[in-house]
Amino acid sequence: MDRTFRNNTRIFYILEGLLLSYIVTAILLLLISFLLLKFDLPGAVISGLINVTYILSAFAGGFFIGKKTEQRKFIWGLILGVFYFVILMLVSIMMNSVGTIHLGSLFTVFIITSLSGMLGGMIS
To answer: Looking at the whole model, is its pTM more than 0.70?
Structure first.
């Protein structure tokens, strides 16, 4: 009974961590949108800012779940980073029905989100 309760709470911790990650993502994307409105930013800067958004969001979620789970924090952070990536890509695929997705950038985002979540869990 205690083991089942502990596993269920970890699922809720993952969901709460993902919610936190996507709240951070929304705030940072709003900030990037404001910067685009006020300044004429080149494409490389925008791409860099979006990568920073991925890093900070997955890190925040990994840090949160690392604080909640007290064992194997880095693995839980890694799991959260992978889930963050999967949901991000599913939403991107659903919204982008015309364009193609490059596997190189997809793999880069996977590595960024996974390692950022793991780092957040390790530091927590």
So the answer is: yes
